[in-house]
UniProtKB/TrEMBL annotation:
PANTHER family the UniProt entry points to: POLYPHOSPHATE GLUCOKINASE, ROK (REPRESSOR, ORF, KINASE) FAMILY
A Gene Ontology molecular function term of the record: kinase activity
Similarity comment: family membership: Belongs to the ROK (NagC/XylR) family.
Alphabetical keyword list: Kinase, Transferase
Gene3D superfamilies tied to this protein: 3.30.420.40
Signal peptide positions (record): none
Species this protein is from: Kribbella kalugense
Protein known as: Polyphosphate glucokinase
Length: 253
């Protein structure tokens, strides 16, 4: 195992389909070890998910600070919702579950929030003052709201009502796939959603992430809104990096 620099932490990114982790160099935002990924257990109840987290930590030989993203509203380490994981997580002290099984110093935060702080430090929002909103387009729409680089946690802007629906029901990349929409058709929906968010928050920058951001050239140029839009830069590593940052800097709500 390579010698670690002092400014490192272990990041775990928990999603509905996969759980991945790596040691992060917090001075550069780069992964200091190879990213390892395992499938999310089915059912994704606390015990089997915690066992996967423990496996990642053990295989890395890690004993220090551990940050973990979770697809839920997280308050004081407790899951208040459960998106794309088993509903038995609601009310569970995620921090305690992971601390007990890994014996590490654990910090848990919302997955989109983790991506947001990573992009603000190392990615598309680096050095941007004012209001930045990161939106991740995937199974739903995750959000992170930042003011001068500082996170306002648990915004859940994908659940804004738009035209009688949760916005993510119509504008997520999952909606694009399930309805067989072209990028042009889907971009019109994203534009409608972004204009709504724009009217509410008047942001200085939108950062768009999620797997579909890899194809940003096919849809971001089609958006006609006042706010600048940048594709996320850290892509699949954003959650891991943000989780490690939160652990190292003792992120709190």
């Amino acid at each position: 195992m390579p010698t670690m620099r002092t400014s490192t932490a272990f990041g775990v990114d928990i999603g509905g389909s996969g759980i991945k982790g790596a040691v992060v160099d917090l001075e550069t935002g780069d992964l200091a070890t190879e990213r390892v990924k395992y499938l999310t257990p089915d059912p994704s109840t606390p015990e089997p998910v915690a066992e996967v987290v423990a496996r990642l930590v053990k295989e890395a030989g890690w004993t220090g600070e551990l940050g973990a993203t979770f697809p839920a509203v997280i308050k004081n380490g407790v899951a208040k919702t459960a998106a794309n994981v088993d509903k038995s997580w609601i009310g569970t002290d995620v921090d305690k579950v992971f601390t007990d099984i890994t014996h590490c110093d654990v910090t848990v935060l919302n997955d989109a929030d983790a991506a947001g702080i990573a992009e603000a430090r190392f990615g598309a929002a680096k050095g941007v003052d004012g209001v930045v909103i990161l939106l991740t387009f995937g199974t739903g729409i995750g959000s992170a709201l930042l003011l001068d680089g500082r996170l306002v946690p648990n915004t859940e802007l994908g659940h804004l009502e738009l035209d009688g629906y949760d916005a993510e029901k119509k504008a997520s990349s999952a909606a694009k796939d399930s309805e067989g929409l072209s990028f042009k058709q889907w971009a019109k929906r994203v534009q409608r959603y972004l204009r709504h968010v724009e009217n509410l928050f008047t942001p200085d920058l939108f950062v768009v992430g999620g797997g579909i951001s890899k194809h940003a050239d096919k849809w971001v140029p089609l958006l006609e809104i006042s706010t600048p839009v940048k594709p996320a830069q850290l892509l699949n590593n954003a959650g891991i990096v943000g989780a490690a940052m939160a652990a190292h800097e003792k992120f709190t709500e």
